[in-house]
């Protein structure tokens, strides 16, 4: 397993500001760069601060780590969330290119969307960095427990169908994450204490969480940016 750096912050706000500072250090316009960015709830502030901090987006691609196959206006849409949190706060005359997993084309069939997405994203690699969240069950992107057979998919993205959800998901494969040179996990809230305890305390035991399986195979630098509540154990 690679070396892992843990940084603790007093709250989500300071954690988010630090994550944007790391992004800024790696961001080098107008050079062509692609950053893998998160969906879910934690990154709301990440996108807000990112929009206010960066003032030159020339050459920059933002690639979502996963998406729910729902309309953009649906509250569950990650790209809808990004556009609201990001574009409403943008502090730049030019905009980054956000790769829309749903809506990039007029395709509606999930398999056609996947083929189109996988062909297109090949042109955006390699990644400069990945900024990801972690769920309380240890998932990142849409790499969930009990779906491990899909993680190391030969394609860049693949479909996930969970019985508990009325929609399909599209997730980046673990292969893409493990090949990324700089990986940042944004972790906040008391509900993440259990998963962080397992990550930090069971590194030499059998990997039991999706994120642990990814950590073991990752080739890049890994940093966990956590608020105080997530590490209060």
Q: Give the overall shape.
A: globular
Proportion of residues in β-strands: 15-25%
Whole-number radius of gyration?
Answer: 17 Å
The side-by-side strand order for the widest beta sheet comes to 1-10-9-6-2-3-5
Count of extended strands: 10
- Describe the biggest sheet? 7 strands, parallel
Q: What structural class do helix, strand and pairing data support?
A: alpha/beta
Give the number of domains.
1
What is the annotated CATH architecture? 3-Layer(aba) Sandwich
What is the mean predicted local confidence, pLDDT?
Answer: 90
**What gap, in angstroms, lies between the N and C termini?**
23 Å
Protein name: Glucosamine/galactosamine-6-phosphate isomerase domain-containing protein
Domain Glucosamine/galactosamine-6-phosphate isomerase: 32-221
Pfam families: Glucosamine_iso
Task: Describe it.
The chain has 233 residues and is of the alpha/beta class. It has one domain: 3-Layer(aba) Sandwich (Rossmann fold). Helices cover 31% and strands 21% of the residues. It has eight helices and ten strands. The strands form two sheets. A seven-stranded parallel beta sheet has the order 1-10-9-6-2-3-5, with helices on one face. A three-stranded antiparallel beta sheet has the order 4-8-7. Helix 1 crosses helix 2 and helix 2 packs parallel to helix 3. The mean pLDDT is 90.
């Amino acid at each position: 397993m690679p070396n892992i750096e843990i940084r603790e912050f007093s709250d989500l706000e300071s954690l988010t500001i630090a994550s944007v500072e790391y992004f800024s250090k790696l961001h080098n316009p107008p050079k062509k760069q692609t950053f893998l960015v998160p969906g879910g709830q934690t990154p709301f502030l990440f996108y807000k601060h990112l929009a206010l901090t960066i003032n030159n987006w020339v050459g920059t691609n933002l690639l979502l780590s996963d998406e729910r196959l729902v309309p953009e206006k649906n509250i569950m849409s990650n790209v809808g969330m990004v556009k609201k949190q990001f574009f409403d706060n943008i502090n730049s005359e030019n905009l980054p290119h956000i790769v829309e997993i749903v809506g990039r084309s007029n395709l509606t069939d999930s398999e056609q969307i996947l083929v189109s997405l996988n062909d297109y994203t090949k042109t955006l690699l390699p990644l400069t960095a990945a900024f990801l969240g972690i769920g309380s069950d240890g998932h990142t992107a849409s790499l969930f427990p009990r779906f491990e057979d899909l993680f190391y998919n030969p394609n860049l993205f693949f479909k996930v169908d969970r019985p508990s959800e009325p929609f399909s998901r599209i997730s980046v494969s673990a292969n893409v994450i493990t090949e990324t040179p700089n990986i940042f996990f944004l972790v906040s809230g008391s509900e993440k204490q259990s998963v962080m305890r397992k990550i930090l305390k069971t590194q030499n035991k059998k990997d039991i969480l999706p994120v642990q399986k990814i950590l073991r195979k990752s080739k890049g630098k890994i940093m966990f940016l956590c608020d105080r509540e997530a590490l209060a154990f």
